[in-house]
Amino acid sequence: MTDGRTGGGTGGAVLRVGGRPVGRYVTYHRLPARLSPRPHLHPVTTLAGTTVTELTPADHTHHLGVGVAVPDVEGYNFWGGRTYVRDRGPTELDNHGTQHHVAFQLSDPDGFVEELRWAAGGADLLRERRTVAATELTATAWALDFTFSLTNVSGGPLSIGSPATNGRPGAGYGGFFWRARKEAVAPDVFTADREGEAAVHGRSADWLALAGADWTLVLAGATEDTRRDPWFVRTAEYPGVGSSLAAVARLPIPAGETVVRRIVTVVADGRPGRDEAATLVRKAVAQ
User: Fold this and answer.
1) Long-range contacts made by residues 16-25, C-beta under 8 angstroms, separation at least 24?
2) N or C: which end of the chain has fewer CB within 10 A?
Protein backbone atom coordinates (compact mmCIF):
# COMPACT_ATOMS: atom_id res chain seq x y z
CA MET A 1 0.00 0.00 0.00
CA THR A 2 1.23 3.50 -0.78
CA ASP A 3 -0.15 6.83 0.34
CA GLY A 4 -1.63 8.86 -2.46
CA ARG A 5 -2.86 12.35 -3.17
CA THR A 6 -5.28 13.31 -5.89
CA GLY A 7 -7.78 16.12 -6.26
CA GLY A 8 -7.49 17.13 -2.60
CA GLY A 9 -7.68 13.53 -1.38
CA THR A 10 -5.16 12.10 1.04
CA GLY A 11 -4.21 8.63 2.18
CA GLY A 12 -5.16 5.36 0.56
CA ALA A 13 -3.73 2.75 -1.74
CA VAL A 14 -2.58 2.30 -5.31
CA LEU A 15 -3.91 -0.83 -7.02
CA ARG A 16 -1.51 -2.51 -9.42
CA VAL A 17 -1.86 -5.24 -12.01
CA GLY A 18 1.39 -6.80 -13.19
CA GLY A 19 3.24 -3.90 -11.60
CA ARG A 20 1.21 -1.28 -13.48
CA PRO A 21 -0.97 1.17 -11.50
CA VAL A 22 -4.63 0.83 -12.49
CA GLY A 23 -6.46 2.56 -9.66
CA ARG A 24 -5.94 4.96 -6.78
CA TYR A 25 -8.03 4.50 -3.67
CA VAL A 26 -8.55 7.65 -1.61
CA THR A 27 -9.59 7.20 2.02
CA TYR A 28 -10.06 10.86 2.89
CA HIS A 29 -11.21 13.72 0.72
CA ARG A 30 -11.58 17.41 1.50
CA LEU A 31 -15.13 17.80 0.28
CA PRO A 32 -18.08 19.79 1.64
CA ALA A 33 -20.55 17.79 3.71
CA ARG A 34 -23.19 18.28 0.98
CA LEU A 35 -21.27 15.84 -1.24
CA SER A 36 -21.39 13.05 1.37
CA PRO A 37 -17.60 12.48 1.57
CA ARG A 38 -16.59 8.84 1.26
CA PRO A 39 -13.62 6.66 0.30
CA HIS A 40 -13.53 5.98 -3.42
CA LEU A 41 -11.44 4.83 -6.37
CA HIS A 42 -10.23 7.48 -8.81
CA PRO A 43 -8.62 7.47 -11.25
CA VAL A 44 -9.25 3.93 -12.47
CA THR A 45 -7.59 3.13 -15.79
CA THR A 46 -7.41 0.42 -18.41
CA LEU A 47 -4.13 -1.44 -18.84
CA ALA A 48 -3.31 0.95 -21.70
CA GLY A 49 -3.80 3.92 -19.37
CA THR A 50 -7.25 5.23 -20.39
CA THR A 51 -9.07 6.75 -17.41
CA VAL A 52 -12.56 5.28 -16.99
CA THR A 53 -13.80 7.20 -13.92
CA GLU A 54 -14.67 10.79 -13.09
CA LEU A 55 -14.44 12.71 -9.83
CA THR A 56 -16.83 15.55 -8.91
CA PRO A 57 -17.87 16.19 -12.54
CA ALA A 58 -19.70 19.45 -13.24
CA ASP A 59 -22.96 17.66 -14.05
CA HIS A 60 -23.05 15.81 -10.70
CA THR A 61 -20.39 17.06 -8.28
CA HIS A 62 -21.29 14.36 -5.74
CA HIS A 63 -20.22 11.55 -8.10
CA LEU A 64 -16.93 10.19 -6.77
CA GLY A 65 -15.38 7.62 -9.10
CA VAL A 66 -16.09 4.08 -7.89
CA GLY A 67 -17.50 3.31 -4.47
CA VAL A 68 -20.61 2.70 -2.40
CA ALA A 69 -23.17 5.50 -2.20
CA VAL A 70 -26.70 5.32 -0.76
CA PRO A 71 -29.19 8.22 -0.91
CA ASP A 72 -31.32 7.12 2.05
CA VAL A 73 -30.09 5.32 5.15
CA GLU A 74 -32.91 5.80 7.63
CA GLY A 75 -33.42 9.30 6.22
CA TYR A 76 -29.74 10.26 5.98
CA ASN A 77 -28.11 10.97 2.60
CA PHE A 78 -24.88 9.07 1.88
CA TRP A 79 -25.10 9.77 -1.87
CA GLY A 80 -24.60 13.52 -1.87
CA GLY A 81 -26.52 16.41 -3.37
CA ARG A 82 -30.23 16.93 -2.92
CA THR A 83 -32.57 14.46 -1.25
CA TYR A 84 -35.73 13.33 -3.00
CA VAL A 85 -38.68 14.03 -0.70
CA ARG A 86 -42.08 12.50 -1.43
CA ASP A 87 -44.54 15.12 -2.78
CA ARG A 88 -41.78 17.77 -2.82
CA GLY A 89 -39.14 16.42 -5.20
CA PRO A 90 -35.36 17.03 -4.96
CA THR A 91 -34.80 19.12 -1.84
CA GLU A 92 -31.75 20.62 -0.16
CA LEU A 93 -31.58 19.12 3.33
CA ASP A 94 -28.99 19.15 6.08
CA ASN A 95 -29.01 15.36 6.30
CA HIS A 96 -25.74 14.26 4.72
CA GLY A 97 -23.72 11.42 6.15
CA THR A 98 -20.02 10.61 5.84
CA GLN A 99 -18.18 7.34 5.36
CA HIS A 100 -15.06 7.34 7.53
CA HIS A 101 -12.04 5.15 6.89
CA VAL A 102 -11.16 3.33 10.10
CA ALA A 103 -8.28 1.05 9.15
CA PHE A 104 -6.85 -1.28 6.55
CA GLN A 105 -6.97 -4.82 7.90
CA LEU A 106 -4.89 -6.02 4.96
CA SER A 107 -3.11 -4.23 2.14
CA ASP A 108 -1.19 -5.52 -0.87
CA PRO A 109 -0.37 -4.06 -4.29
CA ASP A 110 -3.33 -5.93 -5.78
CA GLY A 111 -5.92 -5.16 -3.12
CA PHE A 112 -6.96 -4.43 0.44
CA VAL A 113 -9.48 -5.08 3.19
CA GLU A 114 -10.84 -1.95 4.87
CA GLU A 115 -13.06 -1.10 7.84
CA LEU A 116 -15.33 1.96 7.56
CA ARG A 117 -17.91 3.81 9.68
CA TRP A 118 -21.07 5.33 8.17
CA ALA A 119 -21.88 8.25 10.46
CA ALA A 120 -24.70 10.81 10.47
CA GLY A 121 -26.57 12.82 13.06
CA GLY A 122 -23.75 12.37 15.55
CA ALA A 123 -23.91 8.57 15.56
CA ASP A 124 -22.66 5.54 13.65
CA LEU A 125 -25.41 3.88 11.64
CA LEU A 126 -23.47 1.25 9.72
CA ARG A 127 -20.12 -0.45 9.96
CA GLU A 128 -18.68 -1.62 6.66
CA ARG A 129 -16.06 -4.19 5.75
CA ARG A 130 -14.85 -3.55 2.19
CA THR A 131 -12.68 -5.97 0.21
CA VAL A 132 -11.15 -4.81 -3.08
CA ALA A 133 -8.89 -6.82 -5.39
CA ALA A 134 -7.40 -6.27 -8.85
CA THR A 135 -6.60 -9.23 -11.12
CA GLU A 136 -5.12 -9.44 -14.62
CA LEU A 137 -7.32 -11.32 -17.09
CA THR A 138 -5.62 -10.80 -20.47
CA ALA A 139 -3.10 -8.43 -22.02
CA THR A 140 -5.90 -5.89 -22.50
CA ALA A 141 -8.27 -6.53 -19.58
CA TRP A 142 -8.23 -6.70 -15.79
CA ALA A 143 -10.91 -7.20 -13.14
CA LEU A 144 -11.90 -5.16 -10.09
CA ASP A 145 -13.49 -7.39 -7.44
CA PHE A 146 -15.43 -5.23 -4.94
CA THR A 147 -17.26 -6.68 -1.92
CA PHE A 148 -18.97 -4.63 0.77
CA SER A 149 -20.66 -5.81 3.96
CA LEU A 150 -22.92 -3.35 5.80
CA THR A 151 -23.74 -4.08 9.44
CA ASN A 152 -26.41 -2.15 11.34
CA VAL A 153 -24.68 -0.77 14.47
CA SER A 154 -27.32 1.88 15.24
CA GLY A 155 -28.84 -0.14 18.05
CA GLY A 156 -32.26 -0.21 16.44
CA PRO A 157 -34.02 -1.16 13.19
CA LEU A 158 -32.71 0.51 10.06
CA SER A 159 -33.58 0.45 6.36
CA ILE A 160 -32.05 1.60 3.10
CA GLY A 161 -34.17 3.46 0.55
CA SER A 162 -33.87 5.35 -2.72
CA PRO A 163 -35.66 8.14 -4.56
CA ALA A 164 -37.78 5.39 -6.14
CA THR A 165 -38.97 4.12 -2.75
CA ASN A 166 -39.68 7.74 -1.83
CA GLY A 167 -41.89 8.36 -4.86
CA ARG A 168 -39.67 8.98 -7.90
CA PRO A 169 -40.24 6.17 -10.44
CA GLY A 170 -37.14 4.73 -12.13
CA ALA A 171 -34.69 6.32 -9.69
CA GLY A 172 -33.80 3.28 -7.61
CA TYR A 173 -30.13 4.11 -7.33
CA GLY A 174 -27.98 3.39 -4.30
CA GLY A 175 -25.28 0.80 -3.61
CA PHE A 176 -22.17 0.08 -5.66
CA PHE A 177 -21.82 2.89 -8.21
CA TRP A 178 -19.35 3.55 -11.03
CA ARG A 179 -19.24 7.06 -12.50
CA ALA A 180 -17.67 6.46 -15.88
CA ARG A 181 -15.70 8.58 -18.31
CA LYS A 182 -17.77 11.22 -20.11
CA GLU A 183 -17.00 11.63 -23.81
CA ALA A 184 -18.44 13.56 -26.75
CA VAL A 185 -20.61 10.57 -27.66
CA ALA A 186 -22.62 8.69 -25.03
CA PRO A 187 -21.42 5.13 -24.38
CA ASP A 188 -23.27 2.05 -25.57
CA VAL A 189 -24.80 -0.25 -22.98
CA PHE A 190 -25.87 -3.88 -23.43
CA THR A 191 -26.46 -7.16 -21.65
CA ALA A 192 -26.53 -10.70 -23.03
CA ASP A 193 -29.94 -10.11 -24.65
CA ARG A 194 -30.73 -6.39 -24.48
CA GLU A 195 -29.23 -3.14 -25.70
CA GLY A 196 -29.74 0.54 -24.86
CA GLU A 197 -30.41 2.46 -21.66
CA ALA A 198 -34.19 2.07 -21.79
CA ALA A 199 -33.93 -1.69 -22.29
CA VAL A 200 -31.43 -2.46 -19.51
CA HIS A 201 -32.15 0.16 -16.84
CA GLY A 202 -34.07 -1.14 -13.83
CA ARG A 203 -33.66 -4.79 -14.84
CA SER A 204 -31.60 -7.61 -13.41
CA ALA A 205 -28.99 -9.23 -15.65
CA ASP A 206 -26.07 -11.57 -15.01
CA TRP A 207 -23.78 -8.94 -16.53
CA LEU A 208 -23.95 -5.51 -18.12
CA ALA A 209 -21.44 -3.79 -20.40
CA LEU A 210 -20.80 -0.05 -20.82
CA ALA A 211 -18.66 0.69 -23.89
CA GLY A 212 -17.02 4.02 -24.67
CA ALA A 213 -14.82 5.11 -27.57
CA ASP A 214 -11.92 2.78 -26.76
CA TRP A 215 -12.79 1.22 -23.42
CA THR A 216 -15.39 -1.15 -21.98
CA LEU A 217 -16.63 -1.95 -18.48
CA VAL A 218 -18.40 -5.27 -17.92
CA LEU A 219 -20.10 -5.46 -14.51
CA ALA A 220 -21.50 -8.60 -12.90
CA GLY A 221 -23.08 -9.54 -9.61
CA ALA A 222 -21.01 -12.32 -8.09
CA THR A 223 -23.52 -13.58 -5.51
CA GLU A 224 -27.17 -14.59 -5.79
CA ASP A 225 -28.33 -11.58 -3.77
CA THR A 226 -26.28 -9.21 -5.93
CA ARG A 227 -27.57 -10.74 -9.17
CA ARG A 228 -31.13 -10.13 -8.02
CA ASP A 229 -30.49 -6.39 -7.64
CA PRO A 230 -31.53 -4.42 -10.75
CA TRP A 231 -29.03 -2.29 -12.62
CA PHE A 232 -29.28 1.48 -12.46
CA VAL A 233 -28.03 2.81 -15.82
CA ARG A 234 -27.45 6.25 -17.27
CA THR A 235 -25.83 6.93 -20.66
CA ALA A 236 -27.57 9.93 -22.25
CA GLU A 237 -27.52 12.28 -19.26
CA TYR A 238 -24.16 11.05 -17.97
CA PRO A 239 -22.29 7.71 -18.04
CA GLY A 240 -22.86 5.76 -14.85
CA VAL A 241 -23.82 2.27 -13.69
CA GLY A 242 -24.87 1.03 -10.28
CA SER A 243 -26.27 -2.06 -8.61
CA SER A 244 -29.46 -1.04 -6.78
CA LEU A 245 -30.01 -2.09 -3.17
CA ALA A 246 -33.52 -0.58 -2.97
CA ALA A 247 -34.88 -0.30 -6.50
CA VAL A 248 -38.58 -0.74 -5.67
CA ALA A 249 -38.81 -1.35 -1.91
CA ARG A 250 -36.80 -0.38 1.13
CA LEU A 251 -34.14 -2.86 2.24
CA PRO A 252 -34.43 -3.54 5.99
CA ILE A 253 -31.31 -4.29 8.04
CA PRO A 254 -32.30 -5.39 11.56
CA ALA A 255 -30.07 -4.33 14.46
CA GLY A 256 -26.81 -6.26 14.36
CA GLU A 257 -27.57 -7.84 10.98
CA THR A 258 -25.41 -7.56 7.84
CA VAL A 259 -26.10 -7.09 4.12
CA VAL A 260 -23.39 -8.28 1.70
CA ARG A 261 -22.95 -7.52 -2.00
CA ARG A 262 -20.14 -8.41 -4.44
CA ILE A 263 -19.66 -6.80 -7.85
CA VAL A 264 -16.89 -7.78 -10.27
CA THR A 265 -16.04 -5.34 -13.08
CA VAL A 266 -13.93 -6.14 -16.13
CA VAL A 267 -11.97 -3.07 -17.24
CA ALA A 268 -10.99 -3.58 -20.87
CA ASP A 269 -9.28 -1.68 -23.63
CA GLY A 270 -11.23 -1.61 -26.88
CA ARG A 271 -14.83 -2.69 -27.43
CA PRO A 272 -15.31 -6.45 -26.99
CA GLY A 273 -18.53 -7.86 -28.37
CA ARG A 274 -21.16 -9.80 -26.44
CA ASP A 275 -19.43 -13.18 -26.60
CA GLU A 276 -16.05 -11.81 -25.55
CA ALA A 277 -17.60 -9.69 -22.78
CA ALA A 278 -19.40 -12.74 -21.42
CA THR A 279 -16.20 -14.81 -21.51
CA LEU A 280 -14.18 -12.13 -19.75
CA VAL A 281 -16.67 -11.62 -16.96
CA ARG A 282 -17.11 -15.38 -16.38
CA LYS A 283 -13.34 -15.65 -16.00
CA ALA A 284 -13.27 -12.67 -13.64
CA VAL A 285 -16.04 -13.95 -11.37
CA ALA A 286 -14.49 -17.42 -11.21
CA GLN A 287 -11.14 -16.16 -9.96
Assistant:
1) 16/109, 16/110, 16/134, 17/47, 17/110, 17/134, 17/135, 17/136, 17/142, 18/136, 19/109, 20/47, 21/45, 22/46, 22/47, 22/134, 22/142, 22/267, 23/66, 23/134, 23/144, 25/112, 25/132
2) C
